[in-house]
Structure to design on (245 residues):
């Protein structure tokens, strides 16, 4: 589908204005919405391309700037040491409650968005994988797609590095899809097993995929990008979303 990809909306949140980037089909109609959470670098060109791909399958995709409290609207970090250090710093500076209230603000705005059919999912990569999972704690999220979600197994997201994501899996009412790279140093085998055991204990409806890949294998810039695996994973994502709504 042909899409619009240049829309933005500045939403009021409890912690200030948050710019969101909107991608949606040109064809008239109402569509399910996916809140798409970025890596620590915010809304970079690879994130925009991935959001565009999902929107082109027939979804509204809304990408919030996750560090809106600390950076001016439109700021994205470079994929270099300086950008990585800044993104990681803010990941642990922002309170978990602020990440959650951002999600609530997007959900409430989507209820008024004329192109939304009322069905909402979440998706994210890296930091965004964790945020997509936390979004699923909200009962209005029907499906969550989490790629190599960081800091779930060690509960270190946010200020104080003591998040409660693992402890709240019983709050998940929708379906969740997890995808991991076996060679990802950020989420070791023991960490993945801890997450899966918690999912089983909470009786969450979930899918679990592991591949021989490194961290950030979806990002189409840099040495870890795996185009063939990207294609495989996008097939999994589209099928999962269509089965979940």
């Amino acid at each position: 589908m042909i899409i619009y990809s240049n829309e933005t909306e500045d939403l009021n949140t409890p912690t200030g204005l948050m710019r969101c980037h909107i991608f949606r089909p040109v064809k008239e109609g109402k569509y399910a919405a996916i809140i798409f959470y970025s890596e620590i670098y915010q809304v970079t060109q690879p994130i925009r391309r991935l959001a565009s791909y999902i929107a082109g399958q027939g979804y509204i995709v809304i990408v919030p700037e996750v560090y809106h409290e600390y950076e001016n609207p439109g700021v994205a970090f470079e994929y270099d040491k300086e950008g990585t250090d800044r993104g990681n710093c803010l990941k642990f500076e922002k309170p978990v409650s602020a990440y959650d209230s951002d999600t609530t603000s997007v959900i409430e705005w989507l209820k008024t968005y004329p192109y939304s059919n009322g069905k909402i999912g979440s998706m994210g990569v890296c930091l965004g994988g964790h945020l997509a999972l936390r979004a699923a704690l909200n009962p209005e999220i029907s499906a969550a797609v989490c790629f190599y979600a960081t800091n779930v197994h060690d509960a270190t997201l946010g200020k104080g590095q003591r998040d409660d994501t693992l402890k709240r899996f019983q709050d998940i009412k929708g379906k969740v899809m997890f995808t991991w790279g076996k060679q990802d140093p950020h989420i070791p085998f023991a960490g993945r097993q801890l997450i899966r055991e918690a999912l089983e204990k909470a009786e969450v409806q979930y899918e679990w995929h592991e591949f021989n890949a490194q961290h950030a294998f979806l990002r189409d810039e840099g040495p870890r990008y795996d185009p063939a695996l990207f294609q495989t994973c996008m097939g999994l994502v589209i099928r999962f979303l269509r089965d979940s709504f």
User: Anything to note?
Assistant: The longest strand covers residues 3-13. The mean pLDDT is 98. The chain has six helices and eight strands.
